[in-house]
Give the backbone structure.
Amino acid sequence: MADGARENDPRGNSSNDEAALSARLRRLGDRLTEASRPDDHDAAQPRSSTDPSMIARGFRLSSELVAGVIVGGIIGWLLDRWLGISPWGLIVFLLLGFAAGVLNVMRAAGVIRPNRIDEN
């Protein structure tokens, strides 16, 4: 329907519309090319795909969680062996170790503030 209206347009605006559209597309292409070019200071230093500090932070956060679960499991297993309440000590302390690990990860990530005792 729109194509038929253009063909029957007595004023000849279809060529003006196409020229304006072509100009807009050219400007958009120029802006995209300009935006995709690296800056001068980025060209001197190649970017690495991974940041070593972020990898270290990821290892620290994952080790905080794993350590909490392992310590909780060991304490629960030892209590089971000592008190003979198997498997309840292991279950309870695994859950406590998981909760402690998540809390440590949140503290290390800066989501929550660590508890500080005021010494006044």
